[in-house]
Amino acid sequence: MLGAHLQISRTGSPVVNSPPFNGLPEVKLRELLNHPAVQAGLAPFLVALFTAELLQRIRLSGLAIIAGFAITIYMASNFTITPVSASQKIVLLGWLSALLALLLTLLQARWLNWLLPVLGGAAAIWTAQRILQQQAPQTVLLWGAGCAAYVAILVGIMDKLEHEPLRAASAATALGIGTGAAALVGASALLGQFGLALGSAASAHLLIQMASNHTLPAGRTFTLPLALIAGLTGCVAVLSAKLPWYALPILAAIPLAAWLMPLPRQSPRIQGLLLTMLAFVFVAGAVFVTWRVAGDVPF
Fold this sequence. Notes:
By secondary structure, this protein is mainly α. It has helices spanning about 25-35, 35-55, 65-75, 85-105, 110-125, 130-135, 135-160, 165-185, 190-210, 220-240, 245-260, 270-295, and strands spanning about 5-10, 15.
């Protein structure tokens, strides 16, 4: 009866023995952890939330971005060093950018304002190198210059927000979710998870500020990995998936709008809400133009 074993005791009364443990809870847990919504949404959000709270007193809460991204990489992909694909280069450069940002917390110099965008552009060319080699010679220069410019712009503008935590967190949330959603619609699941993990991690940083009504330190540990990973993800999605190139200028407008938007003298909660609402207008635009090109959403 339903897998149970019926026996008769010495007293004559029936005894029902339950079946042995069949591992169903473990299977359910594994299925839950393998769900894309957990890997690219819930897990990076929770890890970033914990990291931001833990490190805010030493002004390193910006590391929440790379912490959230790292847990998604751990859960969603079998990362290996060789052969180095474009997606693996994104992961490696993301980790290196976080390490570089940590070192730069000890250094404040004007020349970093132009050096970081240049390094971001060079990183874009290296990341897309193999994909560009498969293109026609007349388009290699155009696509390479476009990718380098896009990443350089994101790195440069986000760097201007390093001391503006509300603007940085709002822009990061929208840029990550916009990049991830557009990549998903453009038929790239892994790149979509990259972007959504960034957006989820950034939203945890933003939520703490809005819930507490106080700003958190951001800094380059927040802005540099976010801009580099999001920029590289968008470029690779254009070159290898169905993300149209003109979605990238729409996404690039997110940090620009967050930087330029005048804010009323209100609480951080109200300011964060206004910035996020504005930023997600561009998210909707990027996803819409991608949907028009890619057609049906692949999920």
